[in-house]
Structure prediction request, 2046 residues.
Amino acid sequence: MEKLKVAVIGCGSIAIHRHLPEYQANPFVEIVAVCDLKEDRAQLRASEYNAQAYTDYKQAITDSKADLVSVCLPNYLHAPVSVFAAEQGKHVLCEKPMATSEEEAQQMIEASNNAGKKLMIAHNQRFVPSHEKAKQLITNGEIGKVYSFRTTFGHGGPEGWSIDGKESWFFRKEEAFIGALGDLGVHKADVIRYILGTEFTEVAAMVEASAKENSDVDDQAVTILRSEKGIIGTLTASWAYGAGEDNSTVIYGEKGMLRLEDDPAYGLIATYTDGSKVNYELGQIQTNDSGGQSSSGVVDHFVDSVRNDTKPLIDGEEGYKSLQIILAALEANETKKNISL
Amino acid sequence: MEKLKVAVIGCGSIAIHRHLPEYQANPFVEIVAVCDLKEDRAQLRASEYNAQAYTDYKQAITDSKADLVSVCLPNYLHAPVSVFAAEQGKHVLCEKPMATSEEEAQQMIEASNNAGKKLMIAHNQRFVPSHEKAKQLITNGEIGKVYSFRTTFGHGGPEGWSIDGKESWFFRKEEAFIGALGDLGVHKADVIRYILGTEFTEVAAMVEASAKENSDVDDQAVTILRSEKGIIGTLTASWAYGAGEDNSTVIYGEKGMLRLEDDPAYGLIATYTDGSKVNYELGQIQTNDSGGQSSSGVVDHFVDSVRNDTKPLIDGEEGYKSLQIILAALEANETKKNISL
Amino acid sequence: MEKLKVAVIGCGSIAIHRHLPEYQANPFVEIVAVCDLKEDRAQLRASEYNAQAYTDYKQAITDSKADLVSVCLPNYLHAPVSVFAAEQGKHVLCEKPMATSEEEAQQMIEASNNAGKKLMIAHNQRFVPSHEKAKQLITNGEIGKVYSFRTTFGHGGPEGWSIDGKESWFFRKEEAFIGALGDLGVHKADVIRYILGTEFTEVAAMVEASAKENSDVDDQAVTILRSEKGIIGTLTASWAYGAGEDNSTVIYGEKGMLRLEDDPAYGLIATYTDGSKVNYELGQIQTNDSGGQSSSGVVDHFVDSVRNDTKPLIDGEEGYKSLQIILAALEANETKKNISL
Amino acid sequence: MEKLKVAVIGCGSIAIHRHLPEYQANPFVEIVAVCDLKEDRAQLRASEYNAQAYTDYKQAITDSKADLVSVCLPNYLHAPVSVFAAEQGKHVLCEKPMATSEEEAQQMIEASNNAGKKLMIAHNQRFVPSHEKAKQLITNGEIGKVYSFRTTFGHGGPEGWSIDGKESWFFRKEEAFIGALGDLGVHKADVIRYILGTEFTEVAAMVEASAKENSDVDDQAVTILRSEKGIIGTLTASWAYGAGEDNSTVIYGEKGMLRLEDDPAYGLIATYTDGSKVNYELGQIQTNDSGGQSSSGVVDHFVDSVRNDTKPLIDGEEGYKSLQIILAALEANETKKNISL
Amino acid sequence: MEKLKVAVIGCGSIAIHRHLPEYQANPFVEIVAVCDLKEDRAQLRASEYNAQAYTDYKQAITDSKADLVSVCLPNYLHAPVSVFAAEQGKHVLCEKPMATSEEEAQQMIEASNNAGKKLMIAHNQRFVPSHEKAKQLITNGEIGKVYSFRTTFGHGGPEGWSIDGKESWFFRKEEAFIGALGDLGVHKADVIRYILGTEFTEVAAMVEASAKENSDVDDQAVTILRSEKGIIGTLTASWAYGAGEDNSTVIYGEKGMLRLEDDPAYGLIATYTDGSKVNYELGQIQTNDSGGQSSSGVVDHFVDSVRNDTKPLIDGEEGYKSLQIILAALEANETKKNISL
Amino acid sequence: MEKLKVAVIGCGSIAIHRHLPEYQANPFVEIVAVCDLKEDRAQLRASEYNAQAYTDYKQAITDSKADLVSVCLPNYLHAPVSVFAAEQGKHVLCEKPMATSEEEAQQMIEASNNAGKKLMIAHNQRFVPSHEKAKQLITNGEIGKVYSFRTTFGHGGPEGWSIDGKESWFFRKEEAFIGALGDLGVHKADVIRYILGTEFTEVAAMVEASAKENSDVDDQAVTILRSEKGIIGTLTASWAYGAGEDNSTVIYGEKGMLRLEDDPAYGLIATYTDGSKVNYELGQIQTNDSGGQSSSGVVDHFVDSVRNDTKPLIDGEEGYKSLQIILAALEANETKKNISL
Prediction:
């Protein structure tokens, strides 16, 4: 069988550390094009992966005869490049946050639908073993009715991750639109929707840009969410947890409590009201830190959905709903009102 | 020197487990009166502490010639009894939440001021060693500028603590007015104000009564606070953490992070951005669980402030400000707007 | 509703530490008779539990108008007393091993069947949380096809438990018939049948009486079992694990391994071939040691089965099958041949 | 002094990971010949160790003028190649199990005796520090009279170790003759004889081939052994412990219990009936896993015995006795009778 | 057989917590007399142990017809009372330090020798399991030649132990003569002599009285010792280790190091130059703290030596040699010279 | 700005593992000359660091136009080379011990003073985080008045570190003058002076050369020190702690105790008399073992002091005072008298 051809648009850290090696490791894919405005970056990856280098994304998408396109660009380019790719009949894997507005997100969904191609958003936290296990336990009713939760994602900021360090687009509002909320918060919005199997209908929030110099986007955000079933909880995102990354989620239910990624030894700890306790050692969470980053599962899932013509776990609609929560949080902060979804 | 005479009004759990034994252990105090509407409860404590039993609080306060009055009653009685006691020229130690409205709280303050007597609210968390140490570290600038925090207090509900179990006044709106927020949330509102040394100016919140049957008060509350200095954080309270009490606070700053009562071995863990970590084994937190409840520090502090005529650490004004946050949270939940303080 | 009346026959350790306190704690039962050949022992328990003391078991069973009879006697008396009680129309809870021969066991079953009454054998290990959880995991297919197992029960010998110490009937062949195999081995024969949900068809064994002086029964036994499904494993019993009790079971399957009561912290540890590991902190195993012997679950289950007229989990047939394995082991040791069941 | 010359026959995993590097590290030996039916394998090792490559074992043994011959071949070739080498006047180090029948083993012993040369069988477990320490403690009487034991060796199967993976000769009866029992069980038969300093006189066993596809040898074996002194115990071997290797031995005695290789931190734990406990951190056991495989001690011991003309610790007679146990287990399984040795 | 009669002279803490209960627990002894200058103390113990109370030690020793005398008095009375008792033909167990001068010690030895009776000094550290095990390991050559050591004994001071608290004779020079060195240092002088099996020939020291108010004896002492075999080491004693008792000894040898009472979990840790490490969990050390003070072993040993007419492990000569070291340390401090023994 | 030029004199282990890599890592320095009597050693480092190789130290110092000179030579050469370098107008960083006599040390100080250049002694222990933190805590009065201390430095000897192994100059008196005391003891003399902020006025000591063959210097030393403020403590140094390096210091004060480098997990543990305990995880101590030897801090501090023209933390006077203690210890051992400083 012939391999699927992929064009990776953007050669920053997410392409370097995730998309490119994961496509390379997938036996059904061939990397045919890499693209970056900075030609040297494109050339470097091209030679590493034996692909063609481009500086113009349109050329990269069309000339390369790619079947798949990975969009690894600053947030403000997610929508236009994804739409273009879909219009060219490509399956698209786009980084999060999906877009910078609801309108853009809708355009992406429509373009892919019109083309009859897949659109997937790279919310890798759904593939973390502790998240999958928690979803399974909740679905099976192991903790009974869910009452509340807290979920957070914070680290020291993108300067330690981005290829451009402190000069990264992450800190510029016109390119990022959203700061920690878009970088980290949207991950937890997506994964808490997924784990709880519910949609949120109300958002309150306070947002600050107090920790980073030379930045005009949010770096601290605390939000509260209410689900259609009356579950309430907090979702926080921060670029100022420099003393220790926190990617934890805690879920409180009638019969017990689940602690996810909240313990150095166990990915999941279930504690029950009957006094019993179950510790799960599962695979490690995917972080930006060094260490065993074998695979986030995102690329493999995307490729499978194309090969088997199945709906991706995080399709455009899913990405859209997770994005809505973050956009509502920003609006709640500005209007000082709770926002209904 | 003659001993101070105290009348303890209300013979429920808080009187039994804290006020009475702490007064008994204090060498400068003599328990002269105990009072409860249920005569047998009053008699039982009277014989235990060699005091006079009353069923009428006014008699208990006036006839006993008490110098001090401890108000250990359901929330809706805090204000009237405290005001009466102050008017009779007594120093008052009142349980939290101070009152059920701002007006009541103001009346209490005025009554004590007019009488020239002390009014203290029993926010014992200020005397927890880890809270005191955190305040000291923050004051000394050890973690630099504070960006955000999360603080929570949750357990399985007052039915495991109250002398009346599931029939407790804690679950009845007309007597309690506020549920988990008043029982637990106000503790954290008070202690986070104290630790950070700042006042909060904006509150958002969502509140639910989803976990307890036969209850018409809140049992889940998630709130967000913004300080005058732009610190944002979450404060949550719950009566549905049946699988494990949580009384933790985490504070994020420029140079490090403080984790309070968030680890089974260490009351305080300071982690710094330079990679160093300091673990503090301090005295244990005061909880309702069995175990080393030697003293909360509240009664001793109150007695000292009377003896030395010093301002109590948590006087009426302090109690009022902490109460305001909780009342604002309830209003925010109802109006779906952020409330300014 | 009227309480069920129980007569407890035999006032040795098992009656003192398990049957009597568990009946006492059960709200649906009244202890009406206690019986022991040594009158002072019977009197002591009679006064402790406000019951009638007997030295003649027939009288105790008939005169007391008991509904239930607990047989807490040396092994050689299990059958005659149980048969007598059944013939008198009593529900019978008999200690393990059920009997000293297959014939006796069959008589017990028939007598109860004829009377239309319950017969239960006190194999309490089925109620140990880790055993229950393991059965559930295996039933759910979590470890796939089971290949093999090892299960053991050993401690320092009955002299540390029996009311008669080194003079106990446990060491006399004419009263005990079987030593460690009957005291401990039959427990594991029963519980491994239960956990695996399979019957064993072949037994090989070696048995020794090498550790105890003044004893003429087996104190060491090593056996191997083959199930109808081709599962093979070892079952060992010993009265010479004086340096540390061992009550562990390990089960090896296609997808993982379960370790039960083999770790000081976790009652059950599941290790999977995919590298994940799940540690279960469950309720403690029931042992003869001091400590939290709240309840073995045996008496409550027996009472429930009588009250609801349901089949007891370990009825006569179940007890019989577990006994067969032990008897086969003794025969295998003597004949030096594998015994088919 | 001139170095001893060695010819290593067979270039599979055991030669690659043990024999070749250990000869290389021994200052008194020179590797002169490597031999494998697959020429490329022989060439690869020849160039790595600067030796001559052969595909014909007879040539390798004779032409190379080797003093020593290491037999690293499938089981069915152990005897013929060892006999040939001995007849050519070579000292022989043969892998375990020594042979596939008692007759073959006797021929090997005779051939070496006739040649006046050494024959050693590579039972490396005798050199494991915890095994040596246990032998010493038992010899010194530290645990008194030994009553019983259990010893096991199981892992996920030779497909993870053999150079041919799932196509390995280990799974083919005509080449391996014995499966897990010959691969792993014979190790424990040898080492338990050594540690206890006793011979076994009776064997019962059950053996299954239930876990591996495309295999016609045993992959599960449970056996029981009785020693001349009345010690009884279990010896198990398995290729289906995929969730975790187990190489443990537990020995129960009058005064205490020794646990060998049964704890992740301590190679040996001695627990005594007086309540004391001694934990030994010794050198690591030799396993097939990656990690510190500095040396099994086998090659060094063999070379020393040749250089000093001393009897090897595991000579032909020792290998023969350990082999007998395994062969008896297979016979016991087939005849369903205990086999006397 | 008739029981030995004992008179215990002095009813302070050492009598209350050690001598009296240990005599009581010994089946061969009857407490016939207790004596204290303070009559109420004597009466209290007399009624507790059913003995005769005395305030005059001579009467207590003679009138009671005691066979044994325990001297539990301030240091300056050790010699006169022991000498008197020996002269009356009594076996004497005297607390440490044996005496306040070499002359006194010699008189005690002579008096007992003349009477043909036993004299034992209560150096209980020789009976600590870790000390016994270390002596055995060193004697067996397990750590080879010994090079050096450090041994220390420090706690918060006798005020927490003595029946008189801060008013204790321990702090008065005319009664105690020696402070921490006599209370604690002499214990380690004795036990290090015992463990190493060597005598010390040279002592240097510095001593201070810097920590205790209202005390005129040493509370800090650091000394160095040289043995006849050239072993050098430090011995320290302190009454100012208020933040944690330290009773540790470390011994450095050619082949390894022994750490005694230097770890919370293990009484003895042996670390070897070959990288192996052995942890011993043995019985607990005897301290003045609360907890399992079943027996120091001293009284039982003394009684055995009288009953079997054997030399006590710590007879007068042994006590004398240990005392000499402490006296030399005081002299070294004063003269600023090393003292030869 | 132009880089400072450094000449490193001596190419043994201290140059290889510390001076050269630390100069290399410092952005303000350029290594221009390396010098060793053995030309191949000099050449090797010259090519590694792109410097000029010398065998004559005078040439290396003068011809290279170095600004800085690092003296990494045997002890007896410290003074002459440092003096020469100072006379040539160089800033000098000299290894410890500074010199082999007080006279030499004074000459070094004078030469640098005359030249107006820096002289620093490489007492790297002052830069260990736990030592710095302890100094800060003591200065702040956290443990109140200091009473006593013990400090030690021992390992298996310089043969495991020196480039010449057992043939090292460390073992030859004419080159080293002082053994373990000069290699290790002087480190602790310096650091304990620094931490306590006090000078010592009296030294007693015993010294032995009992552990090393082919050595004529001390390999065991135990000393006691008294400070001007009456603090007494022990300082020990050893080359015979082959079973485990010990670099610990314990300081006892009025309010608490500090344990430095005495725990595998925590660099500093503070225990207080109020029962609280604080564990510090700080940067690792600098040892000769493999592992994270990023930087000792010595070279960076030296370079900073030259660049900013500030007094180095360990200038000649400081090195001199630390040396005095060691020299006094040797004298005390010989004269058997306490030596006053």
